[in-house]
């Protein structure tokens, strides 16, 4: 009986290790491959050289208005400080299915390049871990968001660690509820720790340039 129990415990341990391995390594490999596929599809679609994403493609028009399609990719984010190869699609929504495919654009926040707050979420671990190095960014770092019509360049202003209930970071003017926005802002959010935590790490920035394509 003791031998049987020992074997069962070993098998259970291996299953648990395998599950954790997939969650923290396997999902990242799969998601990063998906990032590359989606960004390539977007670039080809924008250039007229290929079809739009099979999940549908959101669009940011020349006047800054946005066509929102839940789960659809609408842009590509690049952060030079993370290296030339770092390019992650930005998709509409922040549900877990969407965040497994890239960065998620919060509902009820403004679009890229618009007056107000363009707020984006991303995983710090698992599913491509796009914001794994977010806490390394320093004020002055640039954040680029490319859409069909333009490339928007933001500069990081500051960072903060808040609770997951501190939704003021998503306000049109973060920390000033009810105030009418006059600036074009960006807010990036992720978990503050590598494992589940009630804390969120936040990066705030503002738009410094827009380059039409």
UniProtKB/TrEMBL annotation:
It holds the Pfam family Sortase. One of its GO terms (molecular function) is hydrolase activity. Keywords: Hydrolase. It comes from the Bacteria. SUPFAM superfamilies: Sortase. The active site is at 123 (proton donor/acceptor), 191 (acyl-thioester intermediate). InterPro entries: Sortase (IPR005754), Sortase_Class_E (IPR053465), Sortase_dom-sf (IPR023365), Sortase_E (IPR042003). This is Class E sortase. It comes from Raineyella fluvialis.
């Amino acid at each position: 009986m003791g031998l049987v129990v020992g074997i069962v415990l070993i098998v259970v341990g291996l299953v648990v290790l395998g599950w954790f391995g997939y969650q923290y390594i396997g999902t990242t490999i799969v998601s990063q491959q998906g990032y590359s596929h989606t960004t390539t599809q977007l670039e080809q679609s924008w250039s007229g050289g290929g079809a739009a994403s099979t999940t549908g493609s959101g669009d940011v028009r020349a006047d800054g208005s946005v066509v929102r399609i839940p789960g659809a990719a609408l842009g590509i984010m690049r952060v030079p400080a993370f290296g030339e190869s770092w390019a992650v699609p930005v998709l509409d929504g922040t549900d877990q299915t969407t965040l497994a495919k890239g960065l998620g654009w919060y509902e009820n926040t403004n679009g890229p390049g618009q007056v107000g707050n363009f707020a984006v979420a991303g995983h710090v671990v698992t599913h491509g871990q796009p914001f794994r190095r977010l806490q390394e960014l320093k004020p002055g770092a640039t954040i680029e968001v490319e859409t069909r019509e333009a490339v928007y360049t933001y500069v990081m202003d500051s960072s903060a660690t808040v609770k997951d209930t501190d939704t003021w970071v998503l306000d049109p003017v973060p920390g000033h509820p009810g105030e009418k926005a006059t600036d074009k802002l960006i807010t990036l959010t992720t978990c503050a720790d590598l494992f589940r935590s009630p804390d969120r790490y936040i990066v705030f920035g503002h738009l410094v340039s827009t380059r039409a394509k």
